[in-house]
Specification:
heterodimer, A: 17 helices, 65% helix, B: 222 residues, Four Helix Bundle (Hemerythrin (Met), subunit A), elongated
C-alpha cells in the first residue's frame, strides 16, 4: 500500500505553535451559507449529516411514540388500523435507512477518519459532498411518498403483498434505492481513504480501532447495498407494472425475494452495529486510561463479523420453507457472529480491568452498551437456534431482541460518540452532571421499554398487531412508560447540548487527555486538519501505558 | 463514476491537477483507480442479484427456459456480441493512445466505440420491437401463442430486466466516454502522466462488455 506521503522528509514534525493565529477553525473558515452547502471539507459534511440524521431520528422517534401510545389499550386508542400499519412502517424505514445506517459512518466516520489517518481530507471530497445530496434527494422522495399515503408493508416490504398493496410503495422504495447510492459512495470513499491516505507511521496495525470498524463497515456497504438496490428496483417495477418476478401466480418465488432481501438486510445490521463497536473501542481506552486489550483481536473480529455476516441471512427465514439442513447451517453461522462479538466484549472488559476509570458520560454509555450488547447478543444466539426461533418468530421477542442489539448498541455508541467528540467538533464542553443524568434516564428508559417486550413476545404477542388481548395490557403500558422515559432523556440531551453549543466553556485541545490520533490537531480543527508539514505518528493508537514501564509497579 | 472526473479538476495544465489533500500524483491516480475497481465490484453485485433470479427460475422451469431462449434472434444477438467486444478493443486502444499523448487518436477511438455502442442499442431496439409485436413480454403482458409453457413469461421478465439494466449501463458508459472524447478534442492534454480519466471510462466500458458476455450465453444459448 502506498503511504499517504512520500514528500515529507522523515523526521519532520509539525510545529503547531508557529501557526496559531493564521488558521481559523473549520467552523468559522467561511461563514456564508454557500461555503457550507458547497463545502468539500469532510468536517463540514459530517456536521451537515449530523443535522439531518438528528432530524430524521426525531421523526422516527415521534413515530415510535405514536406506536407506543396506540398500544396503550387493547383496542383502538388514537388511530385506525391502517394508520397504525403506516406508522410502524415509517418508523422502521426512517430509523433504518435515514438514521441508523448513516448515523455513525456518515457523521463521525466522515469527521474522524481523515483526522485519525493524519490526512487532510477523504480521498474523494466532492464525492463525499455528493453522497450527502444523494442521501437528501432519496430522503425527500421517500418522505414525499410517505406523506402522500405512506406504505403499509412494514419496512421489509415482503412480496407478494408489497406488489399488490394500494398504498404508495413505488416512491418510497425508489427513495430507498437512491439512499443506497449514498451509502455505496460513502463506503467506496472510506475504503480508498484508508488504503491511500494514511500518514507516515500509520501502518495497517497502527490504525485506530474506529478506523478498522469503519473499514469493515464500508466493505459491507459496498458489497451488500447493490443487491438491495436491484431488489428495490425490481419490487418497484413489480408494483408499477406487475412483471411477476416474485408473484407465485406467474411462477415467481416470494422466498427468492426474501433471500435477496436478507442478503442485504442482514449484513445491514452490521453496517449499523460495527461502527458502534469502533466508537466503543476508542471510548473504553480513553476513559480507562489503558491501552486497548488485544488490539489485533478487536481489529480482526471486526473483519470477521463483516465476513460471516454475509452468510447468516437465512436465520430470518426459518419458517419460510427453507430446508432443515439450510436452517441448521444458517443457525450455526449465526452463532459464529456471536463468537466474534464475544471476542470484542472480552477485550473491552479486559481494557477496563485495572484501568484508571474516569466515569464520564461516554463511559456511562459504554456501560449501557455493554449490557445491551451482551443481553441482546445472547437473545440473538437463542433466536439463532432453529427450534426456539420457530416459536418466537414474528413475536415481540424478536422486536425486543433487535432493538436491544441493533438500536440499543447503536444509540449508546452514537450518544457516546456525540459526547466524546463534542469538544473535538465544536471546541466546547457540555455539563457533565446533566450528561450523566440523561445517560441514566436513557439506559433505564430503554430497558423499561424493551424488557416488557421480551416478556410479551415470550407470552406469544405477535409483532405488528393493532389489537391484543387484555392480558397483555400491563406489559404494554410498562413499555410505553419506558418509551416516555427514553424521550425525556433525549429532550434533556437536546437542551444541554444546544446550550453547550452556544454558551459552553472552551474545551481546550484535548479535554479527555485522550491518546487518539484525532486529538493531535486543534479542537475544533483548522480547515485542512493539520497546520505545518505532514504530521507523523511514531506511537501506536490507544497508547496510554508503555508496556515496558508497566512492568515496574506504580508506573503509569 | 464521478471519480473519473477527479483528475480533471484543474484548469488547462500540461500535467494533471494534483488535489491538495493528496501527497503525490501516484497516490491520487492509485486512489482513483482503486475507487473505480470498488465501484465495478458494486456493479457486478448489482447484476449478481438478477443472475440469481435467472438461476433459480431456470432451475424451476428448464423446458420453458430452453423454449423461450430459442425464440430469441440468435443472429442479432451474435452480431451484438461481436459489436460490443470490438468496441471494448477500441476503448482499450483509446487508453493506449492517451498514454502516448496522441489526443486525436484518443478521440477517434472513443468515437468508434460510441458508434458501435449506438449500433448495439439500435440492434437491441429492433429485438425489443419484434418482441412487442409478437407479445413475448414480461409477466401479465405476455400474449405470444407460439410457446405455451409455465414459466415462459417469467423468462421474459428476467430477459427484459437484465437487458434493460444492461442497456442503461451502456448509455451511462457512453456518457462517461463522451466526456473523455470532448476533453481529448478540446484540451488535448492527455499524456503519459494524465490518462486516468480515459482509463477509468474504459474500465467501466469493459465491465459493460463483460456483463453482456455473461448475458449473451445465458439468455440466447440455453
Amino acid at each position: 500500500m502506498t503511504p499517504s506521503s512520500s514528500i515529507a522528509a522523515p523526521g519532520a514534525t509539525p510545529a503547531p505553535e508557529e501557526h496559531h493565529d493564521h488558521h481559523p477553525s473549520y467552523l468559522v473558515d467561511g461563514t456564508t451559507i454557500k461555503s457550507w452547502l458547497l463545502t468539500v471539507d469532510h468536517k463540514r459534511i459530517g456536521l451537515m449529516f449530523l443535522f439531518w440524521v438528528l432530524l430524521f431520528f426525531l421523526v422516527g422517534g415521534i413515530f415510535a411514540l405514536l406506536i407506543r401510545v396506540e398500544l396503550l389499550t387493547p383496542g383502538p386508542t388514537i388511530m385506525d388500523a391502517m394508520t397504525y400499519n403506516r406508522t410502524f412502517t415509517l418508523h422502521g424505514l426512517v430509523m433504518i435507512f435515514l438514521f441508523m445506517i448513516p448515523a455513525i459512518p456518515a457523521v463521525f466516520g466522515n469527521f474522524m477518519l481523515p483526522l485519525m489517518l493524519g490526512a487532510k481530507d477523504v480521498a474523494f471530497p466532492r464525492l463525499n459532498l455528493l453522497s450527502l445530496y444523494i442521501y437528501l434527494a432519496g430522503a425527500v422522495l421517500a418522505l414525499w411518498g410517505m406523506l402522500n399515503g405512506g406504505l403499509d408493508t412494514g419496512w421489509t416490504f415482503y412480496t407478494p403483498y408489497s406488489a399488490h398493496t394500494t398504498t404508495t410503495v413505488a416512491p418510497v422504495l425508489f427513495g430507498a434505492f437512491i439512499i443506497g447510492f449514498s451509502s455505496i459512495v460513502t463506503g467506496i470513499n472510506f475504503i480508498v481513504t484508508v488504503h491511500t491516505m494514511r500518514a507516515p507511521g500509520i501502518t495497517w496495525f497502527k490504525m485506530p480501532l474506529f478506523v478498522w470498524a469503519i473499514y469493515a463497515t464500508s466493505c459491507i456497504q459496498v458489497l451488500a447495498t447493490p443487491v438491495i438496490g436491484l431488489l428495490l428496483v425490481l419490487v418497484t417495477v413489480e408494483n408499477l407494472f406487475g412483471f411477476g418476478m416474485f408473484d407465485p401466480a406467474r411462477g415467481g418465488d416470494p422466498v427468492l425475494f426474501q433471500h435477496l432481501f436478507w442478503f442485504y438486510s442482514h449484513p445491514a445490521v452490521y453496517i449499523m452495529v460495527l461502527p458502534s463497536f469502533g466508537v466503543m473501542s476508542e471510548v473504553v481506552a480513553t476513559y480507562s486510561r489503558k491501552n486497548i486489550f488485544g488490539y489485533r483481536a478487536v481489529a480482526y473480529s471486526s473483519l470477521g463479523i463483516a465476513f460471516v455476516g454475509f452468510f447468516a441471512w437465512g436465520h430470518h427465514m426459518f419458517v419460510s420453507g427453507q430446508s432443515t439442513f439450510a436452517g441448521g447451517l444458517f443457525g450455526v453461522l449465526t452463532m459464529i457472529v456471536g463468537v466474534f462479538t464475544a471476542i470484542k466484549v472480552f477485550n473491552w472488559v479486559g481494557t477496563v480491568y485495572k484501568g484508571a476509570v474516569e466515569f464520564k458520560t461516554p463511559f456511562a454509555y459504554f456501560c449501557g452498551f455493554l449490557f445491551f450488547t451482551v443481553f441482546g447478543g445472547m437473545t440473538g444466539i437463542a433466536l439463532g437456534t432453529v427450534s426456539l426461533d420457530v416459536a418466537w418468530h414474528d413475536t415481540y421477542f424478536v422486536v425486543a431482541h433487535f432493538h436491544f442489539i441493533m438500536v440499543g448498541a447503536t444509540i449508546m455508541a452514537f450518544l457516546a460518540a456525540l459526547h466524546y467528540w463534542f469538544p473535538k467538533m465544536f471546541g466546547r464542553t457540555y455539563h457533565e452532571g446533566w450528561g450523566l443524568v440523561a445517560a441514566a434516564l436513557i439506559i433505564l428508559g430503554f430497558n423499561a421499554t424493551f424488557i416488557p417486550q421480551f416478556l410479551l413476545g415470550n407470552n406469544g404477542m405477535p409483532r405488528r398487531y393493532y389489537e391484543y388481548p387484555e392480558r397483555f395490557q400491563e406489559l404494554n403500558v410498562a413499555s410505553t412508560a419506558g418509551a416516555s422515559l427514553l424521550a425525556f432523556g433525549f429532550i434533556i440531551i437536546a437542551m444541554y447540548l444546544t446550550y453547550a453549543l452556544i454558551y459552553g466553556k472552551a474545551s481546550g485541545k484535548n479535554p479527555w487527555r485522550s491518546k487518539g490520533y484525532e486529538w493531535l490537531s486543534e479542537s475544533p480543527p483548522p480547515t485542512h486538519n493539520f497546520v505545518g508539514p505532514q504530521p507523523e505518528f511514531p506511537e501506536e493508537p490507544h497508547f496510554y501505558v508503555d508496556p515496558k514501564k508497566a512492568e515496574v509497579p506504580d508506573a503509569v | 463514476m464521478q471519480s473519473s472526473s477527479h483528475a480533471a479538476g484543474g484548469t488547462a495544465q500540461p500535467v494533471p491537477h494534483l488535489a491538495g489533500h493528496f501527497a503525490s500524483l501516484e497516490v491520487q491516480n492509485h486512489a482513483a483507480r482503486l475507487g473505480m475497481w470498488l465501484f465495478l465490484a458494486t456493479e457486478i453485485l448489482l447484476f449478481a442479484g438478477l443472475f440469481i433470479c435467472y438461476g433459480v427460475y431456470r432451475f424451476l422451469f428448464p423446458e420453458a427456459w430452453a423454449a423461450a431462449s430459442r425464440s430469441l434472434d440468435l443472429q442479432l444477438g451474435t452480431i451484438n456480441t461481436v459489436v460490443l467486444i470490438t468496441s471494448s478493443l477500441t476503448a482499450a486502444l483509446a487508453v493506449h493512445y492517451a498514454k502516448e499523448g496522441k489526443n486525436k487518436m484518443v478521440a477517434v477511438q472513443i468515437a468508434l466505440t460510441l458508434v458501435m455502442a449506438v449500433g448495439f442499442l439500435v440492434i437491441k431496439y429492433f429485438e425489443y420491437h419484434h418482441k412487442f409485436e409478437i407479445g413475448t413480454l414480461p409477466g401479465r403482458f405476455y400474449s405470444y401463442e407460439g410457446i405455451q409453457l409455465p414459466g415462459v413469461p417469467l423468462y421474459f421478465t428476467v430477459y427484459f430486466c437484465a437487458t434493460a439494466l444492461h442497456g442503461i449501463h451502456v448509455v451511462i458508459g457512453m456518457i462517461v466516454l463522451a466526456f473523455s472524447m470532448v476533453r481529448a478534442l478540446k484540451k488535448a492534454d492527455f499524456g503519459p502522466n494524465n490518462y486516468t480519466m480515459v482509463e477509468l471510462g474504459s474500465m467501466y466500458w469493459h465491465l459493460v462488455d463483460l456483463v453482456w458476455i455473461f448475458l449473451f450465453p445465458m439468455l440466447y444459448l440455453v
